[in-house]
Amino acid sequence: MAMIPTAIILIWFSGLLSLGIIGGAIYLLYQWYQTAWVYDRLLDRVVFNPDIGMNAPTALLVGGLLLLIWAIAGGFLVRLFLRLISRNSTHEQPTPARDGRIQRLQRPDGTELQIERYGRTEGPTLIFTHGWGTDSTEWYYVKRQLADRFQIIVWDLPGVGESTRPRTNDYSLEKFASDLNAVIDLSDGQPVILVGHSIGGMITLTFCRLFPEALGTRVAGLVFVHTTYTNPVRTTTLARLNTALERPVLVPLLHLMIWLAPLVWVMNVMSYLNGSSHISTKLSGFAGTETWQEVDFASRYGLYMSPAVLARGMLGMLRYDATETLKTIRVPTLVVPANRDPVCKPEASERINLDVPTAEITPLAPAKHMGFMEHNTQFAALVSDFAGACLHAAPSADVFKRVI
Questions:
Q1: Is 300 exposed, middle or buried (0-12, 13-18, 19+ CB in 10 A)?
Q2: How many Å apart are CA 220 and CA 214, to the nearest integer?
Q3: Which end of the chain lies in a sparser environment, N or C, as judged by fewer CB atoms within 10 Å?
Q4: 101-393 belongs to which CATH class?
Q5: Which residues contact 133 (CB under 8 A, 6 or more apart)?
Q6: For 49-68, what is each residue's pLDDT tens digit?
Q7: Rounded Cα gap, residues 95 and 135, in angstroms
Q8: Domain ranges of the chain
């Protein structure tokens, strides 16, 4: 699921826990194996003769097997538990489907971006930018729910999903904003609505700073979804503690994640298999009205994303600040916080709403960082109403006013 730099602690903790489970299983089973070899006086040699019963060697065997089952099948048990406690839904569940009209966009730094179009071939266009640690498939629901009215453009950020990595290893917000500008150019001069989740919102605000002339001409409106206006370390849960840990702990762990990327990827796979990634995803991303398939869908991103790319993008977020940009925005803006979001706290969205002169705010509740997925029908309706009003407004001064 979408991540910010403070998630690096959880990634390492979960990964080391996963290694510990496997290590513990191997150790206990090895100790049991050693005790099972005994000297047979009749045969005058050491033979394998495990003594199964209510004894210490059997305890070693059972403990090792239980840890091994946890390491390999814990995720299955967690998914089963989530299925029992989650709401029953007959609605379509998310999949990583990429069944739109695909286009490849070459960038000067060697990045080749994957662009996908859904819905109407001409007409009102919405461009969706996903969160970090996920890819454009997180917009599964809006692609289905809004395609009958709009042209939906989704894209994978560099190094994520089907987009290639930049040769320069530049994962700054400025580089992403420049890529977003190139994606907007694909709209053939028609005004678009920009929708950004988490880092997608940060990229959109960086775009507003770098390309202010686009607001009101190429861009008719902005939607900020569960995001922040500054370094996300400052606007997350336990922000004061995390700020103190940023330089001495978070930054070194991010660099270590780059250097040990293959090992971290193995740990991420193990975390998925033992279910710890499902637990962390549910606690940070969902508020209790989700389906178990949505939790599993969001947890699977850790299997596909490069830890080195993830870490470099997190380092880029540490240099982000759009505080001064907020007051310069004069296009219609919709702010959508999640009322219980521990990743980008709702106070950050309230600040965006307060400082952007044309903003209105509509929270999702109960919701956490994947609230737009958990409340997908409500979210799609919000975006549809907002975009329809913006894109059908007359090209005059009124374009800078909310008309809904």
A1: middle
A2: 9
A3: C
A4: alpha beta
A5: 1, 2, 3, 7, 301, 302, 305, 310
A6: 898 999 999 999 999 999 99
A7: 12
A8: 101-393
